[in-house]
Each structure stands twice: as structure tokens, then as C-alpha cells.
Amino acid sequence: MAKFTDFLEEKVSNPMARLAEQRHLLAIRDGVISSLPFIIVGSFFLLIASPPLPEPWAITQWAADNAAEILIPYRMTMFIMSLYVAFGIGYNLAQSYKVDPLSGAQIAVASLLLTITPTVIDELFYLPMEFLGGSGLFVTIIVSILSVEIFRICKQKGITIKLPDAVPKSVSRSFEALIPVAIVIVLMTLITVVIGVNLHTVVEKLAAPLVTAGDSLFGVLVPVFLITFFWSFGIHGVSVVGSVARPVWEVYLLNNGEAAAAGEVLPHVAPEPLYQWFIWVGGSGATLGLVIVMILFARSKYLKNLGRTVSVPALFNINEPVIFGLPIVLNPILIIPFIITPIVLAIISYFATSIGLVSPTFIRAPWTLPAPIGAYLATGGDWRAILLVLVNIAISVAIYFPFFKVYDRKMMDLETEEDNTAP
Fold it and tell me: Are strands 124-126 and 119-121 parallel, antiparallel or unpaired?
């Protein structure tokens, strides 16, 4: 067992930890995370426009009559979230290179806008917003990184305009970005306007297999397994896997949101809220079930006290105290249900959603809500989502129980041994 653990530490854990710290993946992760306040607030206006109430209610009729106005905040936030993500990626990547982060963010935004060709109607120019939402997220990532890399190279090679030290720093930074901005604008204009390449169409075709695969059962089970596998060795699995998968999840969420706003069938089963509310109940590994088992059945003094201590954080999906307090990390007994439980919940939740027993998620509710409430809001007020969460909690309790009892007996034996050897 020790040799196997050392092998995993050397060949799996350390490389994955380094991958999690890769600057471009970090910039993508932090850029997407920086847009979450706008996505969360904007998604709630979707809920207001389609309240989870029967049609005879007056508020339902009012929402239907005023949907266009109610959805304006949504269209200025969640609907164009790629704009916010571009700013976040540009800022964080530039900051990691220790060049002016504000200039990096602005260059990234300009680069994204220049991938979109305005539409001319009656001699007026209109900027289509469709590529500023979820469908434009892949291009957003690419051009944001490219534009900041150009900015970095110009800075490192001295291809900038330097002003005397007496000039205010804000003015000096602006002129330092002048040449990189010119290069990025000319490059993107050549691609979009002169050559006539629609990067969004090209990338959409290239990414289509990835998007399709991620919305399948296999595409759900792979990140679920990897996240819990990495956590088992103390690596923040969501950071590693989420850096790669989150852009795809955001596309699903934005597409579902757009479909909900248009009154159409929601196309995707597996946006990130599916994981958040139905699979990660209580946090990665669905550890709320484990906490319930600890509270109800623990006989070890340590585990009894730990169960009471972590119960409130677990209810709000904060489970690091469980993962590192039991611990689950490198614990050969509890790693097994820690991986198996979310896989089982993923299968159940995927099929329940895909066959219509529960509505697909299209709203990003705050992740610290208790799971039944979060699931209810994320599905636009589907009461069946609450039942599914409760069923999943019961299943997680059943899976964790036998493994926990083994661990509990082991802890009791250790406590008894310590008591007997105490002076």
C-alpha cells in the first residue's frame, strides 16, 4: 500500500498539482470565476421572467406581459458573459506576467469585440450579441490569451513607447500599451474584416465533438471521477478539472438560459449546476451523506465531535473540514465511497434529467445554498428537483454507512489503545 501511495504521489499527484498551477489554466479559471456575480444576478432575472408559480397567479401573467423588460438585466449580464470573462482572463494572465493587468484586460476585451462583424441595417451598425454569450466562450479564451501574450512579448522585447519618469504612471502605462494594442487591433481586423474569417464559426465546428461529448453520460462521469480521485490525494480536484471543463459547462448553462428566455426546450443536461446541486451534495464526494452518518452512528469520540462540528458547513456545501478532518485524503477506507457515491448520483441525476423527470438546470444559484433550495432555483422552480436531492442524500448515506462503520471501529480501537496506555 505504501509503495502504491508513493507511486501515485510521484506519478499522478505531483504532475496534477503542477497542472493546476499552470498560468493559462489559472487565468481561465479565475476569469470565469470573476464573472460569476454577473451570471448569478442575471440568472435570477430569468427566474423572475418565468416564476415557478401556476399560470392563474397574477404575478405569472405580469411576468409574461413584461418579460422583455424584465430580461434586460439578464441580457446585459449573463447573456453577454463572455465580455466579462475576457476582461477577467486578460487581467489575471497579465497580472501573472507582472505586466499592467488593466491594459491586459482591456486588450482582451478589444480582441474579443473585433472577432464580431457588425450588421448594417438602414446605414446603422449593430453589434450581434449572440457571440458574446456562451457560444463565444471558446473564442474568448483563445483571443484573450493571444492578446495578452502579444502584450507580454512587446513589453519584454521593449517594443513599447517609454515616457520620462516625471510623467504620471497612469499615463505612462497607457502609452506602453499603445503598440501592443495597435498590433492586436490590426491582427484581429485582418482576420475578421480583410480575410473574412468568422472565428466563432470555426471554433464552434472544432469544439463540437467536445461539447457533444461533455453532455453525455460518459462526459459527466469522467470529470466526476477525476475530481474525487484528485481530492483523494489532497489535490483540489475542482480546480484541476474545472479549469478544463468549466468553459464547456458555461456554454451549456448559457445555451439553456437563452433557450429558457426564448421559451424553447432546454438543450443540455449537464451544465455545472447539475454537478453542484445533484451530485456534489454537501461538496465534492457528496459528503453531506457522510456527515449525516457521522452524526447518527459514530461511536468514536473524535468522529462524534467532528460530525457535530462540520455539520453546519456541510449543509452549505463547505466540506474541506470533512475531507481533511476525518481525513478522507489518503484514507484507503473512505476513498472508496468518496469516489463511488458521486458516480452513482451522477448516473441517477443524468437519467432523471435526460428523460424529463427533473427539469434541466439553467440558473446559477449561489453555491452556498442548501442543496434542495439550490436545486429548486437552478431548475427554475421544479419541485421534483427537491425530491431528487433528497433521494440522492439517502443514497449517499446508504453507500457511506458500511465504510464509515469500519473506519469508526478502527478509530474506537485507537482511542481505547490510547486510553489504556495513558499514564
Answer: antiparallel
